[in-house]
Amino acid sequence: MTTQQGRHFLQIPGPSPVPERILRALSMQVIDHRGPEFGALGREVLAGCQTIFKTSGPVVIYPSSGTGAWEAAIVNTLSPGDKVLMVETGHFATLWRKMAGRWGLDVDFLAGDWRHGADPAAIEAKLAEDKPKSIKAVMVVHNETSTGVISRIAEIRKAIDKANHPALLMVDTISSLGSADYRHEEWGVDVTVSCSQKGLMLPPGLGFTAISDKALAASKTNKMPRSYWDWEEMLKPNANGFFPYTPATNLLYGLREAIKILLEEGLDTVFARHQHLAAATRAAVRAWGLEILCLEPAEYSPVLTAILMPQGHDADQFRALVLEKYNMSLGAGLTNLAGKVFRIGHLGECNELTLIGTLGGVEMGLAAAGVPHKAGGVLAAMQALGDLNTAVSQLAA
Ligand code: PLP
After folding, report:
1. Do 222 and 214 meet the contact criterion of CB atoms below 8 Å apart?
2. CB 368 within 8 A of CB 313
């Protein structure tokens, strides 16, 4: 029986469901993007972004997806032929590496197994070997959305400092910003790349780069051609809340609301909620007897969990069945992981009951698809969330 009633469960690791408050904000009338009302909106969202990225420096907002912001990071800071160090954490790091190659960068790509984050010690060793200090940037994906592995950016910063290396540090927070602890300034990141459709709970369509003084200085002398992505063109009108071209006004209304929602809950509470939901998800996976793709507990993603399918079972067939029977979208395995993993997104507006519904759909799907597993994952997740213990102790009282 196909049961498509009720709301769709969009449990991919982004785009994440858009909260009602943001949907309402998005639906307001467009205004003159050169008028005073827009200037106030622009100033408010640009300042709000500084709070979310945890920086006192500029944050540039592009009408783009995250990939555009990647490109902006490259073309504003580097020159053709520059050496950069990147780390193969998964599908998205590999795509960024490909883009860097297309821009004529000389990429040293530290090999990875797609089950670990970027290794600070390996980065330090590479930089220590670079006696002429010719590596211009270290480029790392914070939350590798294809694997559910998070890299330790503060430790990577320390590794760069220990090697006494001047390379810029560029970090992709496309799926971590607003969901996982992230501190652009404190962690000494030079360019933080992000986008709208994950932890910020907006529709796709905005890309961000947060920029350090050092990155801004690099942008004054680097040789990469650019026009639309040029920081200088943006930062001049941004000083008064305006943009050099017609901005995505309605997405900026949404962004203003998203920032309010995040700050009302409190960023630390938001991050703790994500950790809590991720831990409950892992409890369910273990109870099912399935394997979490991430091998390093210190690198478990608070944003999503990638789960390996048992041998002989196809993750895409399983996802198709879950969509058909339970009206829920789960994340696909990408490139190297196609058909081998499925990914549960637990980010953005997700709460305990959303998660339990999601895990219920997965558990029913495993049974319906004949995937070998043990029952009890949802129960384990409930116990992990503390609900069951609380309920039992209340009943006993
Ligand atoms: N980097 C990461 C970590 C991502 O998760 C994604 C998309 O999911 C991208 C880059 C590409 O972003 P976009 O699809 O918004 O261009």
Report:
1. no
2. no
Shared-domain flag, residues 258 and 271: no
Q: For ligand 1, which residues put their CB under 6 angstroms from it?
A: 14, 65-67, 92, 141, 145, 172, 174-175, 195, 204
Confidence of residue 216 (pLDDT cuts 50, 70, 90): very high
The domain total for the chain is 2
CA distance 360 to 257: 31
Measured distance CA(371)–CA(392) in Å, rounded: 31
Structure tokens at 168: 């810029």
Cα of 106 from ligand 1 centre, angstroms? 22
Look up residue 335 and give its DSSP letter: G
**What type of residue is 60?**
V
309 and 248 within one domain: no
Helices (H), 103-180: 120-129, 153-162
Question: Probe ligand 1: pick from 92, 114, 197, 202, max atoms within 8 Å of CB?
Answer: 92
| Domain extent for 328 | 9-16+267-396
- Domain termination site, one of 230, 263, 296: 263
pLDDT at 4: 77
Cα(93) to centroid of ligand 1, in Å? 10
Q: Are 25 and 254 in contact (CB under 8 A)?
A: yes
**Rounded distance, CA 109 to CA 386, Å?**
42
* CA distances from residue 338 to 86, 333, 372 in whole angstroms, order as listed: 23, 4, 19
What predicted TM-score, i.e. pTM, was given to this entire model?
Answer: 0.97
Q: In what order do the strands lie in the sheet with 341-345?
A: 9-11, 328-332, 341-345, 304-308, 291-292
In a domain, 4, yes or no: no
Tell me how far the alpha carbon of residue 212 lies from the centroid of ligand 1, in angstroms. 22
Q: Say whether 343 counts as a known binding-site residue.
A: yes
ipTM surpasses 0.95: yes
Q: Looking at 237, 263, 289, which one is the last position of a domain?
A: 263
Task: Flag whether pLDDT at 10 surpasses 80.
Answer: yes
